[in-house]
Give the backbone structure.
Amino acid sequence: MSVSSKYLIVLLGPTGVGKSELSLKVAKHFSSPIVSFDSRQFYREMRIGTASPSENELSQVKHYLVGHKSVTERYSCGMFELDALAILKKIYVNHNIAILVGGSGLYMDALLKGIDDFPTPDPELRKSLQQQLKTEGLESLRQQLKLLDPQYYNHVDLNNSQRVLKAVEVCLQTGKTYSSFLTAPQKERPFIPIKIGLNRNRNDLYERINKRVDRMIEQGLIDEVKQLVPFKHYNALNTVGYKEVFQYLNGELTLEQAVELIKRNTRRYAKRQLTWWSRDNEIAWFNPDSYTNIIEYIEQKCKTID
């Protein structure tokens, strides 16, 4: 391995596949810190419902960008890009390898490729779309997005009203697709990415997801969400595991219904994550249990690149 080469090992995969456990092993093998690109784990108040690394896991390997924000703070892909690049610059002073772990394809692409600067929002257009959301509902914006940018429509979390609204806003304001801002010419980066995709057969993955949701309930997810009721209007909490418990606390669902809905919506989210990455032929896919094969692949890839 060249002394001057800097590598970024990207461990990506759907929620519940086993990224955290594997990332610790890989990080220890290469004596490298971990940078998270899991957009749900950025928020310190959302530990249980996002399956954030435990205190024990955090003590074993240095982690960055886990629990570094509050749900009341705005945090965008562009902000993440700048934060992650600054952290990697520091890491590469003493390390040739850093580990990037997560499941948010949008944030991974922002770091690896860079994103164009989005236009400054038009207050009148934003106000108009917010009114449309309020009076006509999210479905009207979904259908608008489907017409304006079918590519992004197929990848975005269609239950995330802020992301859908933002995409429609950019399309209408610029006359370009929102996707075009995410697929701009790749910017120069001070590292060589090695992308490792983690997946399991569908039945195994879905069973792991179901059990993980049950474990979250046992660990106190309901109490965690109760503490966040005053902040439920913030975008960070408009996510699977929190929306459904808010409905339960409002009396709209029984606890059993809420739990089943979390499981179903998490499985659907995992499917969308895999769809996002299916277009990327730079990803080498492995079962997370194939630790030895993954390490061999990374080491061989470094030699080949050098």
